[in-house]
């Protein structure tokens, strides 16, 4: 509950101490590392909230997973196995299809996902 302070500003009480928050908007039985943000409970990827360096470990499904390739801030990480041809889901909606099997903790980007809506091109390619 907020209190009114001088000048009309609200003051909120300090958050109670407890377990660290997980990187999901929904409370799920599969905790994620704080550096990962699942935008919808249906998602099979999460966004990195900070750059995660190759060799670091993140918590996915309550287990540590080693990151093999540096994942830039805002980019996607698989949070469960995604089979080749399966839809990659972010925001609770499909954003593309996996072009090969993707394991939890792997970087999800144009090297392993094809857009179902727009051409996916490598640098220097044209339509």
Fold and architecture overview:
- The protein has 127 residues and is mainly beta.
- The chain has one domain (20-127): Archaeosine Trna-guanine Transglycosylase, Chain: A, domain 4, CATH 2.30.130.110.
- The protein is built from no helices and 11 strands.
- The protein has strands spanning 3-4, 10-11, 36-37, 45-48, 57-60, 63-66, 76-78, 87-90, 93-98, 107-108, 113-114.
- The strands form 4 sheets. It has a 4-stranded antiparallel sheet with strand order 3-4-7-10, with no helix packed on it.
- A hairpin with a 2-residue loop joins strand 8 and strand 9 (93-98).
- The radius of gyration is 18 Å and the shape is globular.
- The protein starts with a strand and ends in a 13-residue tail after the last strand.
- The model is unreliable at 11-29 (pLDDT under 50).
């Amino acid at each position: 509950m907020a209190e009114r302070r001088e000048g009309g500003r609200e003051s909120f009480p300090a958050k109670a101490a407890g377990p660290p928050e997980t990187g999901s908007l929904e409370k799920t039985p599969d905790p994620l590392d704080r550096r990962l943000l699942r935008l919808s409970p249906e998602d099979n990827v999460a966004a990195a909230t900070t750059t995660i360096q190759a060799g670091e470990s993140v918590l996915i499904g309550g287990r540590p997973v080693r990151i093999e390739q540096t994942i830039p801030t805002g980019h996607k990480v698989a949070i469960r196995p995604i089979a080749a041809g399966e839809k990659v889901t972010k925001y609770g909606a499909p954003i593309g299809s996996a072009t090969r099997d993707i394991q939890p903790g792997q970087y999800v980007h144009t090297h392993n996902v094809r857009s179902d809506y727009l051409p996916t091109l490598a640098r220097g390619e044209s339509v």
